[in-house]
Amino acid sequence: MKQTFRLVLLLALGLALAGCKSEYSGNVGGASNGGNGNLIGNYNPEGQRQYERQCASCHGVDGNGTPIGSSLVACATCSTISVLADEISRTMPIGNVGSCSGSCATDTAEYILYAFNGYNLDAATTTLEGVTNSELTVTLRSAALMLAGRLPTSNEIAMVENNGESGLSLALNQLMNEESFYQWLMEVFNEQLLTDKYLSSNQYEGGINLLDQEDYPKRKWYNDAYPADEQSNIRSCVRTLTNDAVAREPLELVRYAAQNSLPHTLYMNADFMMVNWYSQQVYEATLVDATTPFKQRAEPVCDADGVKMYYDPNDFRPARVTKNLEYEMGGMPHAGVLTSPMFLNRYPTTFTNRNRHRSRIVFDYFLDTDILKITGERPGDGIGSGTANPTLLDPACYACHQVMDPVSSAFQHYDDRGQYIVTGSTSRNRWDSSDIEPAGLAGKTIPLSGSSGYFRNMLQWLGKEIANDPRFIRATMRTLYTGIIGQEPLESPGEQGSDADKVAYNSQRAVINTIGQSMAANGWNIKTGVKGIIMSPYYRARALDAGKLVANEHIGATQFLSPEQMQRKLQATLGFGWDKFRDENNRIMYGGMDSDSITERIREPSGLTIAIQQRMATEMACRATAYDFTRSAAERKLFRYVDPTTTPLNSEGELNASAVSMIKHNLQHLHWSLLGEKLDINSSELQASYDLYYQVWSQGQQLLANYRNYDPRPSTSLEWECRARWYRTAEGRTDGDLPEAMRIEKDDNYSIRAWTAVITYLLSDYRFTYE
Amino acid sequence: MKRRHFLQLMAATGMTAQMPLWTPKAHAAPAPDQFLVVVNASGGWDPTSLCDPKGLNSAYEDQSDRHLGSTNSVELDPAKAFGNIRWSAIPSYVSNDETVLLRVENQFDQFFNTYGNRLTVINGIDTGTNNHDTGNRVIWSGKEEIGYPSLAAYFAAATSPTLPMAFISNGGYDFTDSLVARARASNANFINELADPNRYSGDRGFLFRTSDRSVDQYSAIVAAQNARLQRQLQQEGLPLRRQQLSQLFSVRSEDSNLGLLSVSLADIKANVSRDSHWNPNRSNSLKSQAEVVTAAFQSGLAAAANLNIGGFDTHGNHDASAYPQLGDLLEGLHFLQAALQYAGIANRTTVVVGSDFGRTPYYNSGNGKDHWPVTSMMVLHPHSTGGKVFGASTSDYRAQTLNRSTGLPDASGDTLTPAHVNQALRRLLGVDQSPLNGNYPLRVNDFDIFA
Questions:
Q1: Which residue range forms the structural domain that includes residue B226?
Q2: Is residue A381 over pLDDT 80?
Q3: Taking CB atoms and an 8 Å cutoff, what residues of chain B touch A720?
Q4: How far, in Å, CA of B143 to CA of A761, rounded?
Q5: What is the pTM of this model?
Q6: How confident is residue A377, by pLDDT bands cut at 50, 70 and 90?
Q7: What is the distance between the alpha carbons of residues A646 and A638, in angstroms, rounded to a whole number?
């Protein structure tokens, strides 16, 4: 009866998922590979015996995993007996694949589902016992800043207030259709892939120089198009666009799938690459859809030396390299990111490494498997027993290499620079297959010969296999979770872990895997995964009951903002960013990364980062305050309820209650827009902000009245930097003069400076620097 | 507010029991009286090309036809010695340019002859791995497993955890396990601007202040910020945020004194010329890192630092890449010593140099060298004397069991591992008795490396 109930529930949830485009349901538990009606089995004693004999040493007696075997609680293939049995037959045990197939696999699968997964498939993903979620509008604000780099509109807020979680789901759908979302998504994937190392901002022609000159003789086409000295500016502009298009090619695959509601599995198995107009000149590729021209913008993208370029650098299209290459007639077969020259160069190989580095990365990034943890102990001296061919013949080496080397072999046609040269006895690219496992994955060997053989396109086979491997769901969810929450999912506590740690791990694993399965079931739409994490308690938690959740430090998504996130937040809340963040060295000092030598963000502030933050607060408050008053009240970001003439006391020195009320309303607005804090008009926090305003304002009256008594003399003129005299670019640089009539250069009432003090106070607040 | 007051506040609000991360592990300490610099040769250096040379030993004729299967492409030179320390001659394969050969040779010779008297070379260390990540981790923490702080982070946490930039990292293994904050201090000019958040137009402020500070509107903001942070700490309901707030509170409670750093930095730049130590325009990255770190030490802001130099993963054309890079590493170390000397803290600073692992004791078919688990480390300690070498690899560059007192080969001894070296370094630096040692024990037999 219980099983029947679960089946009905899952079918119902599957229907709910199908309607996911318009309405969100956290209870999405559908199985990615379809159900066979046989979900959670009965207790199977033979399965338990097999489990304890062949599985428990790695996965733990209670299925919670160990350092050498992942948890089986809500694992990616723990959906149905048949799916899990198939996975066991094909890939387990990892050191002796094939020793548990047929009834052994079925029995074991039934036991695993019964013993470790009986409770979680119907678990909701939006709540967690003991956790109180934030208000939905607070979640909306923080998600809008993260995903779209803006504050929510009043319509979106109303949508959430009127429709609850469904409204939030709809609002998130809108946010995830904006260009900023796709840029954010690529940023998240770059934090793992690190191919932004090759952007022009890091390296001169960093991406282009990785392409072989013989394969792509037009790789520096701009030098031929604009050869003259007097064309150096347009050449430089186009060079940057071209190089960055080449460098961003693998990440653009992620965007392409997300933007067109195509499966994210294209990241692994797309039989094309992504080009924009600029990189198309480099590759001379064949567009998959040759009938639609590249988009052009209304305003030129490059405008220098009398030349205007209008082609949109964000318009990437699928294309294939079909032209003859230096060593290969008819181009190269594409397999998503796996054949990208950027990926292949970021993770290079050597003559002796034989693509094992690439294999380890594939397992880590795309199969959520740490090769180095598979076998535990390495040979004592790290060298091996002296066997002539240890990776095949020394058991200590083979246990790991039998997993790693088939994927290594699949990369054999790509040399150390990522050039495609098919191996062979007469080829420049020799490959000795006698001392390495044949190409394949998880016990399968790639069929090489015959008309349906994959000899020339082994990576296409590998890409398809990974795309169908449940571990790719887990790997993708790990990437998304880390990008959104700011911390990696919990590691398995293992057999020796405390009960509290096991509860924490199992709960999180259940939520993440359920979201992952719904993403896969929803056409592998990555937005489903993003939305699922944002709707989850791990993102929305506001408070918790430590009595119910003893291990709880991982709950909540508040994180110290990276320089890029901080810049977007400044742009969203003030209208422009901080020019100091344009310099990469400054961003690195603020905890940022360059995808090259600095590949990890610093998430904990030091005295230095706090000093940067305080400097940012003073400079930005100075520049933004008067500037905001140049706009009409409705267009202002900061001061919608006050003008510079709104002061607490009138000219007679009497309290102006109406003005005080407006000032407090404006403070209320600032606490919400800058800090995401909903304060009552009579709250003590609001009063504290008002007190600061009043203190600086009233002191200002004294200063102006007795200006001769001070050195330097106070004045009604604003400091030069704080004057509203210039437009500002998004990056914070001045961008031409404001019309004289709009300028604000004086502060007769000392109100602008009082507001500057308040903005400084708010911009250096915990809730502004963390989100 | 100082740390003592902060702890009082936490106790008053009943939050000390709920502070899982920052403060319990931090141990208040006075301003540092000694410093540690860890220099990471990223990518896996070749000690046989530096301080553990093997010469033309023909030890691997079966594996390689390059240089008769020898570990090095140049004979041992008996003149390259200081005390027990031996270093590699420079093979002619490094460059066709005589000036390059001469430069690299001078860098090697000058370094060992100048600093040999304070140098301890540790040879024959078995890292047990040839994976970059694992090697980096085990060399600098003593543990293969994830979770142990790097030596520099451990030292900073044990001696001066509350300094605003207690641990400066320029890359390499810099895991802290949240014991101390990591700071990246790469842009000296930017640091100058940060010393005073409100400074604008000379001594004027964005927000008004008088020249004697009798009126200072920015101070009102700082007071309001601190009061707000205290309220937030008291009211926060989520442990993660409470932990972040307590970190923020702790860091903000200390004076950053970045002004001192910028003064010190300008002084060092003006008086310790990069180009006259030893070659113009060589090792600029390392020299730049050394300037900032020295200034941070001198101004009392930092206690430990990672410096990082890449380019040692020489799978192809080893000689042409590795020797010049090793020369530049030594030049950077010399510049660091010159800067520390000028700042008056060389006699209180220990410098440890190491890398992920070693490289094969033979050349591959691309004239490169691949990964090999045996490696060396070098330690410049102000109170060491005598060009000392501890430990030894075999003639074909393998690890062997060593006597724990003498470091000489001993069949009944132990194999020297990074855990042993890290344990000995903790003792040398006086942090082996720190409470942190209980949290991050290495639990290996002692080797008397620095006896």
A1: 1-30+200-255
A2: no
A3: 201
A4: 44
A5: 0.81
A6: low
A7: 14
